[in-house]
Amino acid sequence: MNDATGLREAILQQPEMLEDLRAVAELGLPQGCIAAGYVRNFAWDVLHGYTRRTPLHDVDVLYYDPKCLDEAAEKQYEAALRARSPLRNWSVKNQARMHLRNGEKAPYRSVEDAMRYWPETATAVGVRLHPGDDIELLAPWGLDDLLSLKVRQSPCFRDTVVFRQRVTAKEWLRLWPRLQLIEE
Question: At residue 128, what are phi and psi to the nearest 5 degrees?
């Protein structure tokens, strides 16, 4: 797996991932996708040759709906996903309101725009399922860092202390020893 095609093919070989993607697609969320650790950890597991997936804390589901900024809507989507897949810890967030939580002045323009402000480039990757099991990848910073096992601070994320704390707290360098921390 060294490019977008390889990542898509690897995901297509994972029935559990396809089921999760179908569940999200069926909600019909505008710009709906699964992102963050769900995709990042899977890619790093595959690239490390792990036969078992590293356990997930949660499944981050993103969407973009500037017409409904009510957090209660997110909770309803989480409940619907939990009803379908109760063993998952679903976390649904409308990226149209996340700029407020993240202390940004300007609203994000899309799911992909919101991901530009995440701490790491390798985390800013999402996957969306279209009919016919057509997988779309969203990666505002590209896939190079993710697929070359590099952990780099996103250019739009300005808090280097938080970036370093995340790398340490999440123990990525221990879990995936081939990762390379890039500090610029």
Answer: -130, 140
CB burial of residue 6 (10 Å; 0-12, 13-18, 19+): middle
- Cβ burial of 24 (10 Å; 0-12, 13-18, 19+) is buried
pLDDT of residue 8: 97
Question: Class of the 4-182 domain?
Answer: alpha beta
pLDDT > 70: percent of the chain: 100
pLDDT of 168 strictly over 80: yes
CB 128 within 8 A of CB 33: yes
CA–CA gap between residue 124 and residue 116 (Å, rounded) = 7
Q: 120 - beta bridge partners? A: 153
